[in-house]
Amino acid sequence: KSGEKQKSGLVLFREKWYDYLIGVSMQQEGPDDHQIPLRRLRSMRQQTTRISPEDISRQLQYCREVAALSAARPAQPLAFVDTYGCQQNEADSERIRGYLREMGYGFTQDEEQAQIIVLNTCAIREHAEQRVLGNLGALVHVKRRHPEQIICVCGCMAQEAHVAEKIKQSFRHVDLVFGPHALWRFPEFIHTLLTQRGRVFQVAEEAGSISEGIPVVRQDRVKAWVSIMYGCNNFCSYCIVPYVRGRERSRDPQAVLAEVRELVEAGYKDITLLGQNVNSYGNDLDIGYHFPDLLEDIDKIPGEYLIRFMSSHPKDATYRLFDVMAKSSHVAKQLHLPVQSGNDRVLREMNRRYTRAQYLDLVNYAKRVMPGLVLTSDIIIGFPGETEAEAMDTVSLVEEVGFDALFTFIYSPRPGTKAAAMPDPATREEKQKWFDKLLEVQNAMSAKLHAAYVGETVRVLVDGKSDDPDYPLASRTEGNRLVRLKGDEALMGKFVDVKITGSNTWALYGEAL
Ligand code: SAH
Ligand code: SF4
Ligand code: F3S
Fold this sequence. Notes:
By secondary structure, this protein is an alpha/beta fold. It has 14 helices and 23 strands. It has helices at residues 38-43, 53-71, 87-102, 126-145, 161-170, 186-195, 241-245, 253-265, 291-299, 319-327, 344-349, 356-369, 388-401, 428-451; strands spanning 13-15, 18-20, 49-50, 78-83, 106-107, 116-121, 150-155, 176-178, 200-202, 209-210, 223-227, 229-230, 249-250, 270-274, 306-310, 334-336, 374-381, 405-410, 457-468, 471-477, 482-486, 495-503, 508-512. The strands form seven sheets. The chain has a six-stranded parallel beta sheet, with helices on both faces. The longest helix has 24 residues, at 428-451. It is globular and about 60 Å long.
């Protein structure tokens, strides 16, 4: 492949460092070139861009122009934003909704009622992608009934060249495709679609950017997400994220602090700081300011609230981080520290850059300085070449650590990643057997740890309704364990002391005191 950019169709205009193509055209590499050599991606490290305030105000100007079109309609137009994947995507959807609100749109969960449908997609595993493609395919019929509808696909899948190409060729009902890098230009794309004919594809590969000042519509009144950084530099060999989310880039600490302060003042009680690896926060800023510094500064914000964060890569987690957590008053004593595997050979092949022993040392230190720490992790079973004995090393690590809960996955090959090209002789049945063993061990551990709460009095944040009629409220302990609660709805959004009366593998049960 030459790697030379193919351009076809109508180029409307070209601005600054980015190309803007519209019509039945798309800027991308040849269809197979999404297997971008690592060396080239890594060399992009220094090329992240800060979007200027003027650029964002221009987007807000587009919002006003679209809002004028919305106001001229017989009824307020509605939008449906459907989010897949991780909290980062949830946070991005809140910004998409923020822009939509500025454009005069209300919100619906019913695709038949929506003038704009946005699918914010996830590429982490094949199953996630199939779900999106299935739902996207079904929208053909919806759009046939509502031909004026605008259908948008964004998020991590949109940034994969082969997916964008498939949508371009086979999903003709999709009007707009843009990757995470282009999210800040969403109003401009909608404006173009409403005022001109054609489709918009904005999926150019880039290192990524940082933009401040995009409006948000938050989905919750008690819990809030705050992205502190974007992208990933780690290139774990199985993972698609660095390819679709670009290089690591940190928000300015002052911007993060201002956002958290605003949330606390607005009454938010449970704030989660987001990044693919928050432990490398600040590395790209070169100001000698790192994640523990940020946590210390956030902790000084007065108020009654909890701070959580995810994810935390063990290779960059430090004793200092745990010390800061231990002495802070707002940082929850809860740690999500994805280990992925308990076997050193597999960890090396995964490019995780820590050993089982190093992981255990970190966890032991964290537990020592934070007694009662609630610890969770992510695990992949069936990495290419993993043997049964190696998978059982993971099971034994899980037993040894005693995680409160786990997010467990069977390996899913992601085209273009290093691991996707590795020989993978174990059968699906074998992997399923190892996976079931892991679940069995973890479920027993979760049930045991939960049972130890019974009879205790714990402080929880009431954050929603439970689907259990006998325990109508849902709440979370500081460690983020679910407590189904008997109590009055007036407790919603409040910290309360509860007596734990029962438990199972997945939840605790209690009564408000
Ligand atoms: N940045 C986070 C992980 C984000 S993805 C971190 O490093 O901790 C969330 C989880 O999905 C990962 O921790 C991993 O366990 C899982 N995952 C990622 N790629 C996968 C793949 N190809 N197959 C199966 N699970 C995968
Ligand atoms: Fe993926 Fe690894 Fe980056 Fe997490 S740290 S997003 S698993 S490459
Ligand atoms: Fe999925 Fe993208 Fe998150 S691939 S897990 S939505 S960063």
